[in-house]
Write a sequence for this structure.
C-alpha cells in the first residue's frame, strides 16, 4: 500500500528518484511501472502487478463497447517505465507534458493505496484548497474510520 506525500526533483531528462519506502514496494512487484494520464493534470503510477489487476477488472467488468473505449483512451496512452539501478523513474515525455513542471523541476508524489499520483506542486496545493470543503463535510465519517 502506498501512502504519504513526497517532494521529488526531476532531472533534465524527466527522471526522479523514488523515495526508498515507495521504491521497496514497487521493486517487490517488479522493475517496471505503468504511467498514465490521471485527472486534474496529474499522472497515475501503478506497479506492474497492480496494473495487471486493473486490466483484469476491466476485462471482467466492462461490456465490449466500454472495453474498446478503455483500450483506446486509457491503455493506448499508458507508458511503461523501468526503475533504473539508482532508483529513478523516467516520466515519458508525452506524459510529462500533462504535468506542467515549474522552473524548479519539482513534482509531488502522492501515495494512494494501490497507486500513486504525480502532481505539479502548485496544482496539488490548488487541488487540496479546492477540495478542502468536501473533506471537512465528510470529516466525521473519515475520523470514525480511523
Amino acid at each position: 500500500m502506498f501512502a504519504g506525500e513526497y517532494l521529488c526533483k526531476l532531472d533534465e531528462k524527466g527522471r526522479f528518484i523514488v523515495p526508498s519506502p515507495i521504491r521497496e514496494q514497487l521493486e517487490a512487484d517488479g522493475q517496471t511501472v505503468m504511467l498514465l494520464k490521471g485527472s486534474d493534470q496529474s499522472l497515475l503510477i501503478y506497479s506492474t502487478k497492480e496494473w495487471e489487476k486493473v486490466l483484469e477488472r476491466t476485462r471482467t467488468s466492462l461490456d465490449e463497447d466500454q472495453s474498446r473505449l478503455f483500450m483506446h483512451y486509457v491503455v493506448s496512452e499508458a507508458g511503461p517505465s523501468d526503475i533504473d539501478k539508482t532508483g529513478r523513474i523516467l516520466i515519458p515525455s508525452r506524459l510529462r507534458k500533462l504535468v506542467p513542471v515549474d522552473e524548479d523541476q519539482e513534482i509531488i508524489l502522492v501515495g494512494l493505496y494501490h497507486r500513486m499520483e504525480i502532481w505539479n506542486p502548485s496544482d496539488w496545493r490548488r487541488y487540496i484548497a479546492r477540495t478542502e470543503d468536501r473533506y471537512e463535510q465528510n470529516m466525521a465519517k473519515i475520523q470514525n474510520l480511523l
Remarks:
- The chain has one domain: 2-145.
- Strands lie at 2-9, 15-17, 32-37, 43-47, 79-82, 88-90, 106-113, 115-119.
